[in-house]
Design brief:
alpha+beta; 3 domains
């Protein structure tokens, strides 16, 4: 696996990065006691003039692209650890050790798939990005495996883990040196936790796939890996395989509370209480509490009392003021656009700069008005789901709105996502009703043929979103 990919990577890097490699060798210091870590590369089709380097959510440095779209960082005495770099709206992980000299090449039109590392420290980073892409493929395959019985499903999980461990062992043999404890933790978390997540999802998906009335009875060994879980690992707070798993595990506990006692029927409130009790890392606890409230906000089937209980618990326990302000704005927007209301005036700009009144487009059409999120991964999910829904519901009009990008970046985005020009608009900030739609989430509004709002605050990527479309007509 590694040899073939390395040949491809080396070829591309020779073509694109020879000038930068020569620059590095001319400048590199030989005294390792200075602990200078180099990170640089070339970006094809750049989306902004800068590359930003993060430790957690804190920007620790930035670099400007030169006339050849190259950039470089010289980092003094950094700690071994997991970092992220950002270009445009895209993020990706970066594992760094002192004295690493890393080069990347990437094409923003295919960010993750085109990303290639070279230089000292590149094998580990190439492994992590390949592991991420491989797990995406495995996740798609597992969607169709939940009808298996417990024994068959567990055997499939164990087989998948063993294959990933074998690939990791190949990397260690190729490197010829023992990995740092930090990298070993990253790699094994990236291997094990996505499979653990499949196990947490198994009882729910098994019941749904086979149309069962009850959840399957599982053996005590099915969740034996839970005994060794650390829900408060600071090293992994910003590592998606870890946070995705722990979130689902905590929801499993919340549903268990409901099963034990019918009085605990408010699952989101159960989840918040469990999070507040078990998650000691403040930033992670705030993330989970806010995520639960966002889910509740777009849930049409939750009672006003249950939502009020969730809202009160959230504000009592979430210490992130930025989150709190965003949620206050969203609650205000939901309250101002209720089911049965007439869609307010929305002035928008099309790709030619012409002002459009959206009511003229939605007249006599069942319509989904959706807003592009700033988060690139959520935007990609939305785009994939959009193509599927447009085919499945040809009688529904889907209109997309951009609220945050500058005009040139918005047009590049439309082109990159291959979107129909006549369905994409930029929301005018001069519009009287702009405050009802501002934000950076993947919000959606559903309107019937008469221009009446059926749901004024949904999230396009919500797993229950399609239920609202089925009830639209």
């Amino acid at each position: 696996m590694f040899n073939v990919q390395n040949l491809k990577k080396n070829y591309l890097l020779i073509v694109f990065l020879i000038p930068l490699i020569l620059f590095i060798f001319s400048c590199q210091q030989t005294d390792n006691e200075n602990y200078i870590t180099f990170f640089g590369g070339k970006i094809k089709n750049p989306k902004s003039p800068y590359v930003y380097l993060f430790e957690g959510k804190k920007i620790i440095d930035s670099a400007r692209l030169d006339h050849s779209n190259r950039f470089s960082f010289n980092l003094d005495s950094i700690n071994t650890g997991l970092y992220t770099f950002k270009h445009g709206s895209e993020y990706q992980y970066l594992y760094l050790e002192p004295t690493d000299s890393l080069l990347i090449y990437l094409n923003t039109w295919d960010f993750d798939e085109s990303l290639i590392f070279s230089g000292k420290g590149s094998a580990k980073n190439n492994y992590l990005i390949n592991l991420y892409l491989e797990q995406e493929k495995i996740e798609k395959k597992f969607k169709y495996k939940y009808d298996l019985n417990e024994k068959e499903f567990s055997k499939l999980i164990d087989s998948g883990i063993q294959k990933q461990l074998a690939t990791y062992n190949d990397l260690l043999i190729e490197e010829g040196v023992k990995p740092t404890p930090f990298f070993d933790k990253l790699a094994k978390t990236g291997i094990y936790f996505p499979f653990y997540l499949f196990k947490e999802l198994y009882p729910f998906n098994h019941k749904r796939h086979l149309h069962l009335k009850e959840f399957p009875l599982l053996s005590k060994d099915f969740y034996r890996y839970r005994k060794n879980l650390n829900l408060n690992d600071f090293d992994l707070v910003y590592y998606t395989p870890y946070t995705s798993y722990t979130r689902v595990y905590l929801y499993n506990m919340a549903y268990s509370e409901k099963a034990k006692n019918p009085k605990n029927s408010n699952v989101e409130l159960n989840f918040m209480k469990i999070v507040n009790d078990k998650i000691k890392i403040e930033s992670l606890r705030n993330e989970y509490l806010a995520g639960s409230l966002w889910k509740s906000l777009s849930n049409d089937w939750i009672s006003k009392k249950d939502f009020k209980d969730i809202e009160d618990f959230y504000y009592t326990n979430c210490s992130n003021e930025e989150f709190n302000n965003e949620i206050k704005r969203a609650i205000y927007q939901k309250q101002k656009l209720n089911k049965g209301d007439t869609l307010p005036n929305m002035r928008a700009i099309d790709n030619k700069g012409k002002e459009i009144h959206i009511k003229n487009l939605t007249k006599n059409s069942s319509t989904v008005i959706y807003f592009w999120p700033t988060d690139s991964s959520k935007a990609n999910l939305l785009n994939t789901k959009l193509h599927h829904l447009k085919i499945k519901y040809p009688d529904i009009l889907f209109l997309g709105f951009e609220r945050n990008k500058e005009n040139d970046d918005w047009k590049k985005f439309i082109y990159a996502k291959k979107l129909a020009l006549n369905s994409q608009f930029s929301l005018s900030k001069d519009c009287d009703s702009y405050s009802l739609f501002s934000g950076d989430m993947d919000r959606a509004i559903i309107v019937n043929k008469n221009g009446t709002v059926k749901n004024g605050f949904l999230f396009f990527n919500d797993k229950h979103f399609e239920k609202h479309l089925k009830n639209l007509n």
